[in-house]
């Protein structure tokens, strides 16, 4: 890994995961905030079940490390990362529902609707989605309200109709959920459904750091390349991965008849595409010199992951 050893990278990733876990625990506590009336126990327990005790916290890690390039205080970046993680966890809850992917297992445990019921799962997802925007607007993130506005707007656009949610419905349409199968643009679906939140993790650091246009573009390009590499690695894991290591069943894409990067490019073609994307990610952040070493290591981690 360029400039960062595997052990050092792993320590940094684990540290951010631990810090994010602790922060989410506080944000999702039973303590009632100003303008809240109550925090119902069943709802809070369900939100905590699906957002605590699991995951690599890659998205918060990208926020922290992209922000570190500009010397942004870690505490501010962690708050933005926590908001992003709430969006990610909500999306997993809803993805797992019977009307979506109908999954029984997530991170080695029963999915939330299996642990509780569909209604609780839907509302827990709604709760995580909305609290994300509470978190990302908090004054302690940045003294400049315009920075907080830009972070909030970008998060809405990456998570919403032109990003993750839009990508989800295109993915379902490609499966034939609404009638005949619609033509699938795998790259477009990836950019929206999976890539948009990963990209946000990168551009959030640029927004927090009040980056120049060139610096913002570098992190944007890096985020797009990393997002596509992540999805291709995910597609490869669905074909070649071990269900125990993944914490969820493998072979789901084939069972649903999905068109993926692997079905389009073949296994070897997909692996070559990942190598090309790694080179693109490295090149994109080279303008930061040694400050980009951890981000370059992160791209390799994404491409080489086994779970």
Account of the protein in words:
With 307 residues, the chain is mostly helical. It has one domain (6-304): Farnesyl Diphosphate Synthase (Orthogonal Bundle). The chain has 15 helices and two strands. A two-stranded antiparallel sheet has the order 1-2. A hairpin with a 2-residue loop joins strand 1 and strand 2. Helix 11 runs parallel beside helix 15 (293-304). It is globular. 42% of the residues are buried. The model has no long low-confidence stretch (mean pLDDT 93). One of its GO terms (biological process) is terpenoid biosynthetic process. One of its GO terms (molecular function) is metal ion binding.
Q: What is the structure about, briefly put?
A:
This protein is mainly alpha-helical and 307 residues long.
Low-confidence stretches: none
Strand numbers in spatial order across the main sheet: 1-2
Oligomer class: single chain
Form type: globular
CATH topology: Farnesyl Diphosphate Synthase
**What's the SSE pattern?**
HHHHEEHHHHHHHHHHH
Tell me the radius of gyration: 19 Å
Count of helix runs: 15
Number of DSSP E strands: 2
The biggest beta sheet, please?
2 strands, antiparallel
Q: Helix proportion of residues, in percent?
A: 55-70%
Distance between the termini: 19 Å
The CATH superfamily label reads Farnesyl Diphosphate Synthase
GO molecular function: metal ion binding; prenyltransferase activity
Keywords: Isoprene biosynthesis, Magnesium, Metal-binding, Transferase
Family: Belongs to the FPP/GGPP synthase family.
Protein name: Probable farnesyl diphosphate synthase
